[in-house]
């Protein structure tokens, strides 16, 4: 099992949680949800001799995807996102960039399917489709490391907003119950905003579930 080191940064205008997932043996690194402050991330990467190999987007909202292209170009690495997120990538109203006054479109190189198994940076990763916050929201589960990167699907004591274009409360709650709460209770959850939690804590205390 590859040893995982996680660096967390609060980036962009609303302090989105961006994560660097580092294989401590090889320094290969995955970038999860680079929604802003690319220069800060690049300085950390260079200072620590990290080797980015991919960008994982849990979804394509502005605050999660804004600086994906800058990092993609800087390190010549692919961007991964769920296949149902194509409209969010290309529609400034759906991806929220229009709301911030900077209408943008985003790009991805690899489109994922629910349940797809990846191996990136030496980590086995399972794609868990969790629509509802956006049409193509997905979480990334590292079973060997008992780590889940939940984007804006599951938070500590809460769930993602569903009042955005094409959001669905029923879809999101169903996906969380069926895809996330069935994971081992000691799985550490790294959300897109706020503090970390565990699956067990959310089973016991999350009032939305």
Descriptive notes:
The protein has 209 residues and is α/β, with parallel strands linked by helices. Helix content is 24%, strand content 31%. It is built from 7 helices and 14 strands. The protein has helices spanning 38-47, 62-65, 68-75, 86-90, 92-95, 169-180, 199-205; strands at 4-11, 16-23, 28-32, 51-56, 79-82, 110-112, 117-120, 123-129, 138-142, 147-151, 154-155, 158-159, 188-191, 197-198. It has a 6-stranded mixed sheet with strand order 1-2-3-4-5-6, covered by helices on one side. A hairpin with an 8-residue loop joins strand 8 (123-129) and strand 9 (138-142). The radius of gyration is 16 Å and the shape is globular. The model has no long low-confidence stretch (mean pLDDT 97).
Number of helices: 7
What is the beta-strand fraction?
25-35%
Q: Biggest β-sheet, characterized?
A: 6 strands, mixed
Backbone structural class: alpha/beta
Q: Assign an overall shape.
A: globular
What's the gist of this structure?
The chain has 209 residues and is of the alpha/beta class.
Q: What structural keywords apply?
A:
single chain; 209 residues
Please render the helix and strand layout as text:
Layout: E1 4-11, E2 16-23, E3 28-32, H1 38-47, E4 51-56, H2 62-65, H3 68-75, E5 79-82, H4 86-90, H5 92-95, E6 110-112, E7 117-120, E8 123-129, E9 138-142, E10 147-151, E11 154-155, E12 158-159, H6 169-180, E13 188-191, E14 197-198, H7 199-205
Parallel strand pairs: 3-4, 4-5, 5-6, 10-13
Antiparallel strand pairs: 1-2, 2-3, 7-8, 8-9, 9-10, 11-12, 13-14
């Amino acid at each position: 099992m590859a040893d995982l080191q996680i660096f967390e940064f609060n980036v962009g205008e609303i302090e989105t949680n961006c994560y660097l997932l580092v294989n401590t043996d090889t320094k290969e690194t995955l970038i999860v949800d680079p929604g802003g402050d690319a220069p800060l991330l690049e300085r950390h990467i260079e200072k620590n001799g990290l080797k980015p190999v991919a960008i994982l987007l849990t979804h394509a909202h502005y605050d999660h995807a804004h600086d994906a292209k800058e990092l993609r170009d800087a390190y010549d690495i692919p961007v991964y996102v769920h296949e149902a997120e194509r409209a969010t990538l290309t529609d400034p109203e759906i991806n929220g960039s229009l709301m911030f006054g900077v209408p943008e479109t985003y790009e991805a190189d690899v489109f994922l399917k629910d349940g797809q198994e990846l191996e990136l940076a030496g980590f086995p990763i399972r794609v868990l489709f969790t629509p509802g916050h956006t049409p193509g929201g997905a979480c990334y589960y590292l079973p060997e490391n008992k780590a889940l990167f939940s984007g804006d699907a599951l938070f500590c004591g809460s769930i993602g907003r569903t009042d955005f274009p094409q959001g669905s409360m029923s879809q999101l709650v169903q996906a969380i119950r069926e895809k996330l709460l069935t994971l081992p209770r000691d799985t550490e959850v790294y959300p897109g905003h706020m503090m970390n939690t565990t699956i067990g804590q959310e089973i016991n205390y999350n009032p939305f579930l």
